[in-house]
Design goal:
Blueprint lengths: L1 H14 L7 H4 L3 H17 L5 E4 L6 E3 L3 E8 L5 E8 L11 E3 L2 E6 L2 E8 L5 E3 L4 E12 L2 E4 L2 E6 L2 E6 L1
Antiparallel strand pairs: 1-9, 2-8, 3-7, 4-6, 4-9, 5-7, 9-10, 10-11, 11-12
């Protein structure tokens, strides 16, 4: 993805908004054009003014049993395949019902859909209604097996230790 991402940046600098109409892209293989579109979607998500809210997927409420972990199906940005940092909602707006916890987690997503691990630490079951926001996502770009970039933060595993670089 790094090489294709670099190609996308060069095309963007050379052709601007008309990059997909440029001769090199028009003559490229369909798989290459799909990869460039994927880069464009990732860039749009990365440059969004605020994180994407994930919402409970489906038409029926989801039951979270007391004292249990439930993998809740939620919507996310529409990408063929991606990894996201899933975080709980902030304290400034909507929040999860009392007793529910969503820990920051790196999760895989496919076609705008992922599973959010939600723990019900309460003593009664809780129902989440469809389309209810439960968290936010930021795209995670895997640079290599040991390096992951989320927003402007780099995570690297070196000699069994996690190194975090902000900048």
């Amino acid at each position: 993805m790094n090489v294709i991402g670099e190609c996308y940046q060069i095309l963007f600098r050379q052709h601007g908004p008309q990059r997909f109409l440029s001769p090199p892209v028009q003559s490229a293989a369909p798989a290459a054009r799909r990869a460039l579109r994927h880069c464009e979607q990732i860039r749009a998500i990365e440059n969004a003014p605020k994180p994407f809210k994930v919402k409970v997927h489906g038409k029926l409420p989801v039951c979270l049993e007391a004292g249990a972990l439930t993998m809740v199906p939620v919507t996310c940005p529409q990408l063929e395949s991606a990894e996201f940092l899933l975080e709980p909602l902030g304290f400034d707006g909507e929040q999860l019902p009392e007793g529910l916890l969503l820990s920051p987690t790196l999760v895989p997503a496919k076609r705008g859909f992922l599973y959010a691990p939600v723990v019900n630490v309460g003593s009664t079951k809780v129902w989440l209604s469809p389309r209810r926001p439960i968290g936010t996502t930021l795209p995670a770009i895997r640079v290599s097996a040991a390096v992951l970039v989320i927003g402007s933060v780099d995570f690297e595993i070196c000699a069994g230790r996690l190194i975090v670089t902000i900048g």
